């Protein structure tokens, strides 16, 4: 495990999850029906390396902004390398295909991961234009991403927000359902120890026993890794049998009981498990009371 990823001055926080979906408006409708406030659609761009003009990255998104972390729902916009990767993943299934972790310095994180022998793409710089209550602002990000195919779960990336206020606008962080924070991404694994070892190497944090599975605690949030059979029981269906996959999101919420009448909802102790709707793909919400 790379020691420089464990340094006290290098906090790593769960920043956001990423759903790959076919239809942003269908996803919006499902989210709003659950009481989430959803941001307007925004296409992601990056500067052209020759002209400097903005060009489509290949995906656009809508988001659910929480007090801590956020949920991203991505759609295809162009047949760029990222756009084509997106389509290949979406062809397998709609659902969770991305985990993103906030760091202090994307370049330093990139260097540390490469030094640990982890294959990386070049650091990328993305932008998207967002309307605020005082006018348009640019939300900019520096992103260190593992090479395509490195993680069977999908895209794993580390990022720095350069204008967080443009994203976390107060008008988007209040939710009728009382959602507060993204506290964990849940993975299904045919071999939990193998999956945990890969992520522990990237995150520089140890995996600890968590029920029948394993959990990697971060400076904020966590990754939970469940044996495949247990994940199937949680979701109500196998998501990608034989392949490690992201299958659920754990959120803290003021009162999960507000959603207990939704189809498929069931209590697991004090937490409410609720399947994703069809537009979001196979998977489940796990809603914990504050």
From TrEMBL:
UniProt xrefs under Pfam families: Glyoxalase_3 (PF13468)
SUPFAM superfamilies in the cross-refs: Glyoxalase/Bleomycin resistance protein/Dihydroxybiphenyl dioxygenase (SSF54593)
InterPro entries reported in the protein's UniProt record: Glyas_Bleomycin-R_OHBP_Dase (IPR029068), Glyoxalase-like_dom (IPR025870)
Residue ranges of every copy of the Glyoxalase-like domain listed in the record: 14-202
Domain of life: Bacteria
Protein name: Glyoxalase-like domain-containing protein
């Amino acid at each position: 495990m790379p020691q420089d990823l464990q340094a006290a001055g290098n906090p790593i926080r769960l920043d956001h999850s990423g759903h790959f979906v076919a239809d942003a408006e269908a996803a919006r409708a499902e989210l709003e029906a659950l009481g989430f406030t959803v941001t307007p659609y925004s296409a992601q761009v990056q500067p052209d390396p020759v002209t400097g003009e903005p060009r489509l990255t290949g995906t656009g998104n809508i988001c659910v902004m929480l007090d801590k972390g956020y949920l991203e729902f991505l759609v295809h916009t162009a047949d760029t390398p990222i756009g084509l990767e997106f389509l290949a993943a979406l062809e397998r299934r709609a659902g969770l295909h991305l985990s993103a972790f906030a760091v202090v310095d994307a370049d330093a994180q990139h260097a540390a991961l490469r030094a640990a022998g982890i294959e990386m793409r070049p650091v990328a710089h993305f932008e998207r234009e967002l309307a605020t209550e005082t006018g348009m602002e640019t939300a900019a990000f520096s992103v260190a991403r593992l090479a395509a195919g490195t993680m069977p779960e999908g895209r794993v990336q580390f990022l720095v927000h350069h204008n967080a206020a443009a994203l976390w606008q107060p008008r988007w962080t209040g939710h009728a359902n009382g959602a507060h924070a993204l506290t964990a991404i849940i993975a299904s694994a045919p071999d939990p120890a193998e999956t945990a070892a890969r992520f522990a190497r990237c995150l520089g944090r140890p995996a600890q026993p968590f029920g029948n599975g394993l959990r990697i605690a971060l400076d904020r949030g966590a990754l939970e890794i469940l044996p495949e059979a247990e994940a199937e029981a949680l979701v109500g269906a196998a998501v990608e049998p034989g392949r490690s996959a992201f299958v659920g999101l754990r959120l803290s919420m003021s009162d999960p009981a507000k959603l207990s009448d939704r189809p498929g909802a069931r209590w697991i102790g004090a937490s409410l498990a609720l399947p994703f709707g069809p537009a979001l793909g196979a998977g489940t919400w796990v809603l914990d009371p504050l």
